[in-house]
Fold this sequence. Notes:
Low-confidence stretches: 1-21
Largest sheet: 4 strands, antiparallel
Amino acid sequence: MRLATYAAILALAATHALAQVTSVVNSPHNLSASGKGKIHASGEQEICIFCHTPHNALPIEPLWNRNLPVSAYQVYSSNSLKALPSQPTGSSKKCLSCHDGTIALGSVYSRGQTIMMSGGVTTLPPGTKNLGTDLRDDHPISFRYDATLVTKNGKLKDPTGLPTSVRLDKNHEVQCTTCHDPHDNSKTRFLVMANTASQLCNSCHVQGVTTVANHVNCNSCHQSHSAPSGPYLLKQAKTTDTCLACHSGGTKPPQGPNIAADLKKFTTHDTSSAINLADPYPNHITCSDCHEPHTMTNTPAVAPNVPPKYGKVKGVTSGGGAINVARYEYEVCFKCHADKNAVQPKIPRQVVQANLRLKFDATAVSFHPVEVAGKSGAVPSLRPGLTTASIIYCSDCHNSDTGHKAGASGPDGVHGSGIPGLLARRYETADNTSESATAYALCYGCHDRNILLSDQSSFKDHKKHIVEKNAPCSACHDPHGISSAQGTTTKNSHLINFDTRIVFKNSTGRLEYNSTGLRRGACYLKCHNENHNPESYGP
Length: 539
C-alpha cells in the first residue's frame, strides 16, 4: 500500500511539473506579482484574473474579464493576399485588448479599480508586443481562409489539411490563436507548434523549394509583427536591406556572397528605393525583381535557361508577353529593358532602337546570340568552347568586375561593376584608344585577340582600324544588335551600326556599309578624315 501511494505521489508530481512547463504560470502572460516576466503586477496574486473571472464575467467566452477595444484599426492589405481582412474579430480582438496599447493591462471588468503594475507600467511598451492600432505591418487576421481563397491564391494550402494545432475559428477565419496559444509558451512566443525549418509557416503557405540554407527559414527575412516593410513583413524597410543582412560580407553567420560591395560601385542596378506595392514592374528594382528567394537553388545552368539562383521569378517573353515564371535569363532582363523602359544608348548610333527585346529578337538583322544562335556561319575568332551555335547570357557581359566571369574570385551577378555599363570587363568606346588586351577585354573574352587582329579574321582590316588607327570596336559595332524594323541584312549584318560621333557621311553624303558576300563588303563613309567612296574589302 505504501509503495502504491508513493508511486501515485510521483506520478502526480510529474504531471504537475509538466503542467508548469506548458501552463501560463511560468510564462510572460502571468501578469500577477508572482510572474517572472519583465511586466507584472505590484501586488496582485491572482494569475488568471487579467483575462478571466469565474463570476460576473462579460458575456464573452470564456468567462472574459476585459473590455474589448473600440478603436478602428488600420488593417492589413496587399496585392498578394487575395482577401480583405475585416476589423479584428473574435479571439484577435481579445488579444488586442492588451496588445494594441489602448487599454491598461490592469483594467479588468471584475475589479472596481485598475490593478497596479510594477514600475508604474500601464500598457505594453512599444515594439513587437504592442502592435498599436495600425495592423498593416502585421500578419493579417480576421479573414476567411477557405477553398475559395486557396483558388485565388495559389500559394496557400487547402485549410482542410491544417495540423490539428493550427486552428481557424468557427467562422473559418484566421485569428491570433491560429498561430498562438496564450496559455502555452513551451514552443516560445506562445506558438501553437515549433517553427523549426518554418514548419508553422508552411502549415498554410506554399512558397516552393529552395536549396539555399538560410532561405528555408522564413524568420531569416520576415517578422510577423511590426514589420518595418509594412505588408511585405520583411525585417527591414527595403527588400535590399533585408537581403544585405546576410549578403554584406559581415562576420555574423549565416553569410551569403558579399553583394553589398557591388552595390556601391560606379554602375549598379538601383535597389535603393522603397517597396511600391502598386507597381509589379517599377522603374527601380529590388533584389526580388530578379530573384525569387523561396525557390532559388545553387544548381548550374546552361544559356539561355534561367539560372536556378534566380528562382521562379516573373519575366517578359521575346514576344513581349508577361509570364509568371521566366524560362530564360533574357526574359528576366526584358521586364525592365524592353517595352517598359526604353534603354537609351550611351553611344549615338546611325540606327537607333531603345527596345532591347527587338534588338535580340530571332528576326533581327544581326545580334549577339542571347535568344538564339547567331546568324553568321563563319566567326573564326571565337575562343575554344564557343561555336557559331553557342548561346550566351546577358550576364556573360553585364556582371560584376570582381566576379568569376571577370576572371576574379568575387560573387557573380548584375548587382554592380566598377566599369561603365555594368560590364564585367573593360570595353573602351572613346576614339583614339590605344588597343590592348585590357582595353577591349570584354570583346576578347569571347573573341581570340590574335585571330581577330590577323588575316584569319572575318574582316582582315581589324588590325588596321583598331591598332593602327586607334578606332574602338564600338565605332562600327553595336553589341546588342540591330532590329529588323530599323536595319537590313545588306547594311547592318555583323552588328554594323556606326557611332555617329566617330563615323560621318562621305563626300557624296553616304554613310553606309554594304555586305557583298562572305568576308566581303564595302564602306561609304568618312572616318579619321579618310573618305571611303567606297572602301571595299575581301579575302
